Amino acid sequence: MSDLATALSDATAKMDKAVEVAKEDFGGIRTGRAHPSMFNKINVDYYGTYTPLSQLASIQVPEPRMALVSPFDKGAMVSIEKAIRESDLGVNPQTDGSVIRVNFPQLTEERRKDYIKVARNKAEDSRISIRNIRRTAKEAMEKLEKDGLAGKDDVARTEKDLEKLTADHVAKIDELLKHKEVELLEV
Fold it and tell me: Which of 103, 127, 144 marks a domain boundary?
């Protein structure tokens, strides 16, 4: 594989990762419905070590606006409840001995608009990340041409592929944002 192809495949892998991060970020934004991915970014102080909630409990969503968190270790119940309460979900979990119930109140119109702004900011951060990856790859390609390791035509062709790749990934981010906005506006 040539150095140009390597630069392009590295850029592809990094852009794919940027889209995955955007998906995770969008999953963490609360909508009118409860979803297990809302708890992905919550870390619990488990015996002095911050551990992801998903490693300490199972999360089920029996109703659209309620989640049940079932700790594997009942001794961690208080720590899990505290971590959920202090998270940015804006909920007040309640324990009934074996499970933690998390009820999500109906979102107000103002709160929905705030979440849409958050989603748009996360999307813009992802687009910036993708453009930075493109710039780094383009600089690497130009350096290969300058060092005589790649021809001018090959570099131009690869840069064209890079531009298409960038546009495709930005379109994916835009599509994710569009779906999130629809989800947030859904009452």
Answer: 103
Residues 76 and 136 placed together within one structural domain of the fold:
no
- Beta-carbon contacts of residue 42 (< 8 Å; ≥ 6 apart): 52, 53, 83, 84, 87, 89
Q: Can you tell me which residue has the tokens 């929905």? A: 112
Of 51, 102, 100, 48, whose CA–CA distance to 78 is shortest? 100
Which of 86, 103, 120 terminates a domain? The answer is 103
CA–CA separation, 33 and 51 (whole Å): 25
Residue 120: which domain range?
3-27+108-185
Q: Is the pLDDT of residue 88 over 80?
A: no
Tell me the whole-structure pTM to 2 decimals: 0.72
Q: 18: which residues sit within 8 A by CB, 6+ positions away?
A: 126, 129, 130, 133, 169, 173
- Together in a domain, 7 and 74: no
| Three-class SS of 125-139 | HHHHHHHHHHHHHHH
Q: CA 61, CA 3: separation in Å to the nearest integer?
A: 48
User: Given a cut of 60, is residue 1 above it in pLDDT?
Assistant: no
